[in-house]
Amino acid sequence: MDVTAAEKQDRPRGGNWSRRGVLSGLLGAPVLLVAACSGDKAKPAGPSASGSAPAGGEPTGSPSTSPKASVAQITVKPADGTTAAPFTEPVTVTVLDGTLTSVTVTDGTGKAIAGEFSADKASWTSTAKLSSGSQYTVAASAVDGDQRPADANASFSTASPANTFVGYFTPEDGTTVGVGMPVSINFNKAITDRKAVQRAITVVADPPVEIVGHWFDSTRLDFRPQEYWAKGTKVTLKLRLKDVAGAKGVYGTQTKDVTFTVGRSQVSTADLKADTLTVRTDGRVTATYPVIGGAPEHRTWGGKLVISEKYQQTRMNSSTVGLGSEYDIPDVPHAQRLTTSGTFVHGNYWSPASQFGNDNTSHGCIALQDVQGGGDPGTDAAKFYASSMVGDVVEVINSGDRTVNPANGLNGWNMSWADWVAGSAV
Questions:
Q1: DSSP strand E in 108-143: where?
Q2: Can you tell me the distance from the alpha carbon of 272 to that of 289, in angstroms, rounded to the nearest whole number?
Q3: Which residues pair with 393 in a beta bridge?
């Protein structure tokens, strides 16, 4: 079929085209033509998936855009990756051009470290102490003025102190002691900040009783109640000395609980005029022994003396207590220490039996009759030794000597309560 001139004018340019229609029949009906570009895919009419089509043209989509980043800048101190951060300084988190919304600091066990925001929430500072030689993680979030979020994460570790101190304590954990046993702590380095150290140490009792600490000097701190402990009392020493500055640049290392129990009450009286040792257990006289006390030139200390150590057998040498070569006995039996300076209540096998209960001939100790080797459980010294425990009290009267120095052994009971309390740093 031939193409008319009008058809040529309406023919689309470019590409192939086809013609479909109803041809004129015998009655000469007009022909309907529909033309389409066969080289392009047909596009659906109406709006496209990305937007409405502009009038007279192809549908077009809006260009995609990335959201703007937050301008809030978070800074963590110590910085991420720090390996020897000062444990004496707090963790700080600050934000520039924004407001902090959350800060979490945790130690290696997952325990959160307490802290506070500033009033404007531009900073956060830890309020709990950090621990030396420990790992910490920080997670912080903030928003800028347009509420766009920002986050920061950091991890760091704290330094270990180069100079440390420890406290050596008595009695030991789990022991049973006498009613006169104080809690005594000896530090291996001089303490200049006594308040900080004492605040890091507490002693509590069950049943409750007031317990006060007393500094004898820069290396010794003892705790006791006003009167002897009640029998059956459970006492707990709580040491929280780790990272406490005892002196400039010197830090504690201990975090420990020590619990001991007070046993039956036993207080003995050594009357060195009568030369007797009378034993009272739970308030009842249970034994009386003849003894030898200190000679006039070596009188026994007076006062309340606490048994601090027990030895089935020990050597006693006069040179160790400043008395030259007056004696050296290698096998003193049933020896119980009463003072640091060398006063004992002990067995004696070398003096004649007639001296016990009659003469004071010792170099300051209190002696009970015994046998060499201490193998006879029936001697006075053996029986008193068996009935005694560390922390029992021997009250020495009529010795003719002055009262023992309270710091000489565990003998703080020889100080008035007012003087004892005056020696506390808190």
A1: 115-117, 123-126, 135-143
A2: 12
A3: 267, 306
Residue type, position 49, single letter: A
Tally Cβ neighbours within 10 Å of residue 401: 18
For residue 60, the Cα-to-chain-centroid distance in whole angstroms is 69
pLDDT per residue as tens digits for the range 164-200: 999 999 999 999 999 999 999 999 999 999 999 999 9
Per this entry, what is the length of the chain?
426
Question: Other C-beta atoms within 10 Å of 43: how many?
Answer: 10
Average pLDDT, integer, range 13-22: 40
Q: What is the C-alpha separation between 86 and 131, in angstroms, rounded?
A: 9
Distance between CA atoms of 242 and 251, rounded to whole angstroms? Answer: 7
Q: DSSP code of 282? A: T
Q: Which residues contact 312 (CB under 8 A, 6 or more apart)?
A: 333, 334, 374, 385
Report pLDDT for 67.
Answer: 79
8-state DSSP, 83: S
The Cα–Cα gap between 366 and 347 comes to 9
Are 87 and 252 in contact by the 8 Å Cβ rule? The answer is: no
Strands of 149-157's sheet, edge to edge? 99-107, 135-143, 149-157
Cα 267 from Cα 397, distance rounded (Å): 13
Write out the two tokens for 100: 């902090």
* CA distance linking residue 45 with residue 202, whole number of Å: 86
Tokens 């789990």 sit on residue: 174
pLDDT score recorded for residue 362 = 95
Distance (Å, whole) CA 396 – CA 413 = 13
Q: What are phi and psi of 7, to 5 degrees?
A: -65, -40
| DSSP per residue, 9-23 | HHPPSSS--------
- Enter the tokens of residue 258: 């020590």
Q: List, for residues 325-376, the tens digit of each pLDDT value.
A: 778 899 999 999 999 999 999 999 999 999 999 999 999 999 999 999 999 9
Q: How far apart are the first and last CA of the chain?
A: 119
Cα distances from 5 to residues 2, 9, 28, in angstroms, run 10, 6, 18
DSSP 50-72: TBPPPTTS---PPPP-PPPPP--
Rounded-to-integer distance, Cα 75 and Cα 22, Å: 80
Query: How sure is the predictor about 265, in pLDDT bands with cuts at 50, 70 and 90?
Result: very high
- Residue 356 token pair: 């016990």
Residue 11: half-sphere exposure toward Cβ, Cα within 13 Å: 14
CA pair distance 268, 324, nearest whole angstrom: 31
Q: Which of 313, 317, 327 is nearest to 382 (CA)?
A: 313
DSSP states along 312-361? EEEEEEGGGGT-TTS-EEEEEEEEEE--TTS-EEEEESSS-GGGTTT---
